[in-house]
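User: Please predict the structure of the protein below. I'd like the answer in structure-token form so I can feed it into my own downstream comparison script.

Assistant: Understood. Taking the following sequence of 145 residues as input:
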Amino acid sequence: MAERKQVKKEELREMLLSLREETLKKIEEEVGTKVREDPRFTTLSTMDVGDLSQFDLDSDINYSLLQSHLQRLKSIDEALRRLEDGTYGYCEECGRAIDVKRLRVLPFARYCVQCQEKLEKVGKQKVRMLYRFEDMEADEDEELS
């Protein structure tokens, strides 16, 4: 049983490392050769779009796509850290093991399917509440006019 668990851990580590390499290549494609030439890019995984926008880049950069790649890279690095800590594969919300099938599809998943659905539902409810609040403020502004 422990041997099987070790095989899964190694398989998942390889998946994460492969995904990390793929993501780094996408980032490099997006920012061009500047990544290789500029020593300030050595800590790419800790940068965000704001950091990158400070550099004088010669090519057009899709910052929203770049931000997505950087977020994915951070998620992968965090998953690798959790793998080494022994906390990888457990839901950060409920603490139960995340199904291996889910981890194979989304290796940097932090939540089990049930908790992810609950969090997304809560997030949507917060957005709806925010819109309702903004609508109420707009109505009050119209009444004051």
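That's the full token string. The chain has a mean pLDDT of 77.
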